[in-house]
Design goal:
about 240 residues, alpha+beta, 2 domains, Phosphoenolpyruvate Carboxykinase, domain 3
Length: about 240
């Protein structure tokens, strides 16, 4: 099968085996694009490679093909000043707030608190694997169909306002991270290409982003107070 998908405004000509990917990316399909920026082909060997990485559960070939496709996209995306970030991204009043943490630490829970706190002012960009792309020195967060178990995402692009790395704790406290701290935390949640030139590109782009976007660490409880604290701090932050 062949289809065209637009991810982070990058048009991909995709060749694949199963309908799972086509259904998953339905909102991102384009017909007869005027330009194609990238070509990705997924075959049975790619599916088997993904299967070898899974340590728990039995996954369909279609699901594994989807993972293989997104992995291949992430390997090439840096050519377009774009990289994959593992986090929960949401928009409040047209500005994106991005939360990072190891799986199961509470990113989705914190985003859910924002939805309760701000209601219709919040639009979920992506709850699991958004893309970040620099265009004209502005960093945009894009929705993707790889959006976590709750399937929370929108096919939109929103300028990034702030990044907050979460830790669970008995009280709520937030602090700015140094560039060195922020780089380590960010790379821990960023897809790291296997090819050295691409990896160098991701490292450089991330460093440049962190010189523009304020980054914080939030030790927090599961509470509205924690959401209010992270929003108020990121909203008012400025990079000097």
């Amino acid at each position: 099968m062949k289809a065209y998908f637009k991810l982070a405004d990058i048009v991909v000509e995709a060749t694949f085996q199963y309908e799972y990917l086509l259904k998953q990316c339905g909102a991102y399909c384009v017909e007869n694009p005027s330009a194609v920026h990238m070509e990705i082909s997924v075959d049975l060997s790619d599916i088997e490679m993904e299967r070898s990485k899974e340590t728990e559960g039995h996954f369909s070939d279609g699901y594994l093909e989807s993972l293989a496709f997104y992995r291949k996209f992430a390997e090439k995306a840096i050519e377009f000043d774009c990289f994959l970030f593992h986090g929960s991204a949401l928009s409040v009043d047209g500005e994106c707030y991005l939360f990072g943490a190891p799986s199961g630490t509470g990113k989705s829970t914190h985003s859910a608190l924002y939805r309760k706190l701000f209601g219709d002012r919040v639009v979920m960009v992506n709850d699991d694997k958004p893309l970040i792309r620099r265009i004209n020195n502005v960093y945009y967060v894009y929705g993707t169909p790889w959006d976590g178990k709750h399937r929370l995402s929108s096919n939109i692009a929103v300028p990034l306002k702030g990044i907050c790395f979460l830790k669970q704790g008995p009280n709520n406290a937030i602090r700015p991270l140094s560039i060195f701290e922020a780089l380590g935390a960010s790379l821990g949640q960023t897809y790291r290409p296997t090819e050295s030139v691409a990896m160098s590109g991701v490292l450089n782009l991330t460093q440049q982003m962190l010189g523009t976007i304020p980054v914080f660490e939030l030790v927090c409880t599961i509470s509205m107070e924690a959401a209010e604290l992270s929003y108020r701090t990121m909203k008012g932050a400025r990079i000097e």
